[in-house]
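Could you help me review a protein record that somebody else here produced? Here is the record exactly as it was handed to me:
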Amino acid sequence: MKTILFRCGTEFQSVDNIYVKNIYSGFIEGVADPKINQDIVADFVQDIRQRAWQGKPYLLFSSMNDNAHYPALPEYACAVNLRFAEPVHHPDCLMSAATLVWFQQQNPILHGFDLTELIRELHWKDVASDLSW
């Protein structure tokens, strides 16, 4: 994985955990449905929330519109746990961490992760939570 660089300058060259799921695996082809897509996103975020260190994962995803021509979600759901050796909000904590969730069309194992492009405008302090061991 390339270096992950936030707009604020916080940089990561390694990650603690990466999760990837082919979200339409097992579905019969057909017209994308807003309710099914919302459920898929909610289920994946809930699954990742149980694996996250610090509570709510940060979803890097454009808003989902309810309309008749609802597009299919990108094929792969991805999540990553990042940890930084310094706190960002509370100096009495030992570190900060964030779990980021995003969706991408290409298989991330074969074609790379879109995360590096998605977070360019984010600040670490806006997505991270402080914690201690």
